[in-house]
UniProtKB/TrEMBL annotation:
HTH luxR-type domain ranges (all copies): 146-211
Key words of the record: DNA-binding, Phosphoprotein, Transcription, Transcription regulation
Organism: Streptomyces antioxidans
SMART domains: HTH_LUXR, REC
Entry keyword annotation includes Ribonucleoprotein: no
Protein's UniProt name: DNA-binding response regulator
Any one GO molecular-function label of the UniProt entry: DNA binding
PANTHER family in the record: TRANSCRIPTIONAL REGULATORY PROTEIN NARL-RELATED, TWO-COMPONENT RESPONSE REGULATOR
Pfam family, one: GerE
Statement: the UniProt record of this protein carries the keyword DNA-binding: yes
4-aspartylphosphate sites (modified residues): 55
Gene Ontology terms: biological process: phosphorelay signal transduction system; regulation of DNA-templated transcription
Annotated ranges, domain Response regulatory: 4-120
Length: 215
C-alpha cells in the first residue's frame, strides 16, 4: 500500500524540500500541497489524502483550525503536526484538535519518515523534546497505581487505556487484544464517560498521570 500525503506549510522552499524527502520513501506519495488553512481544507477534499503534515503558524486561520475542519469532515485522515512551536499550549491544542503526532521543524529525514510510518499505521509520535514536555505536563503524580486512580474502570478498560496512552491506535489495540475495532471503540467510549474527559488527549494525560502508557 502507498499512503497519500498532503503537505501544509506557508514556506514554498520548505514544502518542496519536505515533498522531496517524503517522496524518497516508496511507501508515500505527495498528492497535494497548501500554504494556508483554507487551501488545506480544499486540498484534502480534492486529493483525498491518508496523511496530512500540518504546520501550525499559517496566514489567516491557524493550522489547528485547519486540522479540526479536516478531521470533522474526514475523520479517517491522520494529521501529523510539524511546527516551530515548542510551547505546551500548542502541544495540547494540537492533540485536542485530533493530531496524531507533533514534530519540531529541524527533524531529520529519517525521523520524519519514521513518524509518518508510525502515524500511518495508527500510532502516535512526538519529537524527543515534545515528548519530554508532555511528560512534564502530567507532573509527578504518576506514582499512584492505575487501579487506585481509576477505581470505576474494569480490568479490560484499564488495559485499553494503557495501550491508548502508549500511543496505539484503535486498530492496533484491537489486534493486540484480539477483539474487533467496534469493541475497542465501545471500551474507549465507556472510559471517556467514566473519567469525564472529552477526548483522547485528556484521557492520555490522565492515564500518564497514573503511570500508564509506559514501555
Amino acid at each position: 500500500m502507498q499512503w497519500r500525503v498532503l503537505l501544509v506549510d506557508d514556506h514554498p522552499l520548505f514544502r518542496e524540500g519536505l515533498a522531496a524527502a517524503v517522496n524518497l520513501d516508496v511507501a508515500f506519495t505527495v498528492v497535494g500541497q497548501a500554504a494556508c488553512a483554507d487551501g488545506a481544507v480544499a486540498e484534502a477534499v480534492r486529493t483525498g489524502p491518508d496523511l496530512v503534515m500540518m504546520d501550525l503558524a499559517l496566514p489567516g486561520r491557524s493550522g489547528l483550525e485547519a486540522t479540526r475542519r479536516i478531521l470533522c469532515d474526514h475523520p479517517e485522515i491522520r494529521v501529523l503536526v510539524m511546527t516551530m512551536s515548542e510551547d505546551d499550549d500548542s502541544l495540547l491544542a494540537a492533540l485536542r484538535a485530533g493530531a496524531r503526532g507533533y514534530l519540531l521543524k529541524g527533524a531529520g529525514r529519517d525521523e520524519i519518515l519514521r513518524a509518518l510510518h508510525t502515524v500511518a499505521r495508527g500510532g502516535a509520535v512526538f519529537s524527543p523534546r515534545m515528548a519530554e514536555r508532555l511528560g512534564a505536563l502530567v507532573g509527578a503524580s504518576g506514582s499512584a497505581s492505575a487501579k487506585e486512580a481509576f477505581p470505576t474502570l474494569t480490568a479490560r478498560e484499564l488495559e485499553v487505556l494503557d495501550l491508548l496512552a502508549a500511543g496505539l491506535g484503535y486498530r492496533q489495540i484491537a489486534q493486540r487484544l484480539v477483539v474487533t475495532d467496534k469493541t475497542v471503540r465501545n471500551h474507549v467510549g465507556s472510559i471517556f464517560a467514566k473519567l469525564q474527559v472529552r477526548d483522547r488527549a485528556q484521557a492520555i494525560v490522565r492515564a500518564r498521570q497514573a503511570g500508564l502508557g509506559g514501555e
